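Morning!

This is the sequence you dropped in the shared folder:
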Amino acid sequence: MKKSSTYHYVLAAFGAAIISVLAQVTIPLPLIPITGQTLAVGLVVTILGTKRGTLSVLIYILLGAAGLPVFSGMSGGFGILVGPTGGYIIGFLAAAIIMGFYLDKFGITIYQAIVANVIGMVVTLAFGTTWLKIVGDLTWTAAFMGGAAPFIIVGIVKAVLAGWFGVIVRRRLERAHLISFSGVKTPAERN
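The structure's back. Tokens below.
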């Protein structure tokens, strides 16, 4: 049975809500805080796939840009996107696309999902560090030390958690017939 487009939009909105909630989990650091946003982006893309996962991230960014307090620290507004952390938020969209394509190409296994999430972390840090350098008028070294170095270990841990947990949730949702992917039969549909 083909799911309606409304169903896909509802899933994407649900993904955006997950990102919004986990964005509020924050560990403050001097320049850029550690947040649950990257974990949430990885989870959502791993669970929902390329199209719905990327749409979820886009909805999240648009809601925040419109002023809804969905970004970390219950913040929102276009000013956040052009501020020091804006590069990370825009990087989420690029990360979602790249992670999704990677998973489409190599399959949804825990190992591949972890690799995809590590790639997503690198993409997000690259966008964030580059934007931090521009906005903060920093040297590359200063931007890297403030905008990437403190997040590498935590990012790897979040990538492992998002890949592992995301695949488990995705498989359970497929078995329960709550989610399916066009052209790919769920395990229950194969029987």
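Headline: Residues 87 and 150 are 16 Å apart (CA to CA).

More detail when I'm at my desk.
O.
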